[in-house]
Design a protein that fits this description.
Elements (H helix, E strand, L loop, with lengths): L2 H15 L10 E3 L8 E3 L2 H8 L3 H10 L7 E7 L3 E6 L1 H12 L13 E5 L14 H16 L3 E5 L8 H16 L8 H14 L1 H15 L3 H24 L12 H4 L3 H10 L3 E4 L2 E10 L5 E7 L7 H14 L5 E7 L3 H13 L8 E7 L2 E2 L16 H19 L5 H21 L7 E2 L2 H4 L7 H18 L15 H10 L2 H11 L2 H21 L7 H24 L9
Parallel strand pairs: 5-6, 5-10, 10-11, 12-13
Antiparallel strand pairs: 1-2, 2-4, 3-4, 7-8, 8-9
Helix pairs in contact: 1-3, 2-3, 4-18, 4-21, 5-19, 6-7, 6-8, 6-9, 7-8, 8-9, 12-13, 14-15, 17-21, 18-20, 18-21, 19-20, 20-21
């Protein structure tokens, strides 16, 4: 359930009944301090200002028209016109009971949009590196949240599988196959790419063949297309290994590379010209945008076709937006990429809208993210200054987690240890990133991310196993609990309220593309449960109290597990 949404709708209707406009917003927010209630409605002052009346008087009119019977214990007007909302403990207890017995913890499948999410986007014939990590795991966290809320999600892995470099790569693949027959494997894609480039730069005959192969590939030559598909296949097989290790839901079926949109580009450029949006400038076709100015204050020109006839990334992104609306029938399109691409995406989508390829109702959203930095505050690199391969990073995470878990619990069986190490290692790398606001740069720090203290994956995973151990040690089956949830103590009530705010966190992730909000919620939940556990004895309490507190503990464990799963982070029953 979404308490914020329930309160917002009811208060909005009361505000309208009191004289506010139809589009008024109640601005209901979780309260920061218990003395101000559980929630506050902050929209009264703005609405009163528009009506030209006293905010506190308008607030009273709102309360006169507001029916929250059975939901709240108390409503009060505070300060210049805030409405403080104190929820009914009985209502919280009843809804906590329903959440415990619900497959989705009481979350309503209220969203029914078709959403295309463009994330990961590695390049063909190159290994994934740490630069792909943020797009991959942030995008996947948002995808999981969107699906959990009932949306139809189309994953779009916009791989770099087209361009002039493919003539060079095809020519080198041909050379390798001729020299090594069918045994040739591209086990090291980086070495393959470097060797192809060296041949292109030093061998004139090879370079000429490579240029010819580019033309043939773009013309649909069967041989070149077959060789190109081999390169794509080899790359994606390796990428899939990384996705599986990261517990990311992308598959080979989700590849929608640049090549997919290539057939659309000539017609799009011709149409932009016909509409007068694209004009010729020194042989190139350029769209001038008044909304963007160059350093001289003139409209900025965006090239959509070079003078040699080649197309730009902008042209491809215009085609991708058009395809996602027309062909995939999406309501929203989300792109997760580096902050440095923000202006590029804004310009491509502005041209898309000016050309009428998508309506205003179609939401195009660039969810940008900052960089991963080393402790020196510079982009994260190897000790020699090279790019860190993603596979190597994950290997090191496993190695460090093995040492950590061996120290923490040497009594685990080999099978248990393997599961814990994998969960902690990959979870630590992912959670360290996901728990940071994606729009900021963040410092990659092994010691912090593998700590069992603070807002980290090991802490969250341990919080889950700690709750589960209450049941396992007492040999209690959480599915066989009886009685009702009772909220007689303040710590019980605080825990129940937090548990019922799960949907609000997930909804924010789906709406704004911000997994750190869910991380913060789970961290706060773990802390609130710890306070509850210390203040409220469970196994030694009277039977009805014991059953009630066990139910709260079970719901807390389920919520932690589900929340971490939405982040793509595994839990284990024993650590």
């Amino acid at each position: 359930m979404n308490i914020q949404h329930i309160l917002s709708e009811k208060i909005k209707q009361a505000m309208i009944a009191a004289g506010a406009e139809q589009n008024v917003e109640a601005l209901v927010r979780q309260s920061g301090k218990p003395q101000f209630g559980d929630y506050q409605a902050n929209g009264i002052m703005g609405a009163a200002k528009k009506l030209g009346c006293n905010p506190r008087e308008f607030a009273q009119k709102v309360l006169d028209n507001l029916n929250l019977d059975g939901i709240v214990e108390k409503l009060e007007i505070a300060g210049p016109g805030f409405i403080n909302i104190f929820l009914s403990s009985e209502w919280l207890a009843n809804n906590a009971e329903q959440a415990l017995n619900s497959e989705k913890l009481g979350i309503q499948l209220s969203q029914t949009q078709t959403v295309v999410v463009d994330y990961s986007s590695p390049n063909v014939a190159k290994e994934m590196h740490v630069g792909h990590l943020r797009s991959t795991i942030i995008g996947d966290g948002v995808v999981r949240a969107l699906e959990f809320l009932g949306n139809k999600v189309i994953r779009a892995n916009h791989v770099g599988d087209w361009g002039t470099q493919f003539g060079m790569l095809i020519a080198y693949l041909e050379k390798m196959e001729n020299e090594h027959a069918s045994e040739m494997e591209l086990s090291d894609l980086e070495a393959f790419y470097r060797a192809a480039k060296e041949h292109y730069d030093s061998d004139a005959e090879f370079a000429e063949k490579a240029r010819n192969y580019v033309v043939k590939l773009q013309s649909g030559d069967e041989y070149c297309r077959t060789m190109w598909q081999k390169l794509v296949k080899i790359t994606m097989v390796q990428n899939q290994q990384n996705y599986q290790r990261l517990n990311v839901t992308l598959t080979e079926n989700d590849v929608m590379g640049e090549s997919l949109y290539n057939p659309m580009l000539p017609a799009i450029v011709a149409d932009l010209q016909a509409q007068g949006l694209a004009v010729e400038d020194e042989g190139a076709l350029v769209v001038y945008l008044d909304e963007f100015k160059n350093k001289d204050g003139d409209p900025m020109g965006v090239i959509v076709q070079k003078k040699d006839g080649g197309f730009l990334y902008t042209t491809t992104d215009i085609a991708a937006a058009k395809y996602r609306y027309e062909t995939l029938k999406a309501d929203r399109a989300l792109v997760f990429s580096d902050t440095r691409q923000s202006q590029h995406m804004q310009q491509a989508w502005l041209i898309t809208r000016k050309a009428g390829y998508v309506p205003d109702s179609f939401s195009l959203e660039h969810h940008n993210f900052g960089m991963m930095l080393g402790k020196d505050g510079k982009p994260f690199k190897t000790r020699t200054g090279g790019t860190v391969k993603l596979a190597d990073l994950l290997d090191e995470a496993v190695e460090r987690a093995e040492k950590l878990i061996a120290e923490k619990n040497p009594n685990l069986t080999a099978c248990e240890k393997q599961a814990v190490v994998e969960a902690v290692a990959i979870g630590a790398v992912k959670y360290s990133d996901l728990s940071k606001n994606r729009t900021t740069d963040y410092v990659f720090d092994w010691d912090n991310m593998l700590s069992f203290e603070g807002n980290t994956a090991p802490y969250m995973q341990y919080a889950y196993t700690r709750i589960r151990s209450i049941f396992s040690k007492a040999r209690i089956d959480p599915t066989q609990l009886s009685g009702k949830i009772l909220l007689n103590e303040e710590k019980e009530r605080t825990l129940a309220l937090k548990l019922l705010q799960f949907e609000e966190a997930v909804t924010t992730v789906a709406k704004e593309g911000t997994p750190h909000v869910l991380c913060q919620y789970l961290y706060e939940l773990a802390g609130i449960f710890s306070s509850f556990y210390e203040a409220c004895p469970i196994l030694n309490a009277e039977e009805n109290i014991k059953q009630s507190r066990l139910k709260l503990a079970s719901l807390a464990a389920d919520t932690l597990k589900q929340g971490l799963d939405l982040l793509g982070i595994k839990t284990v029953e024993k650590m």
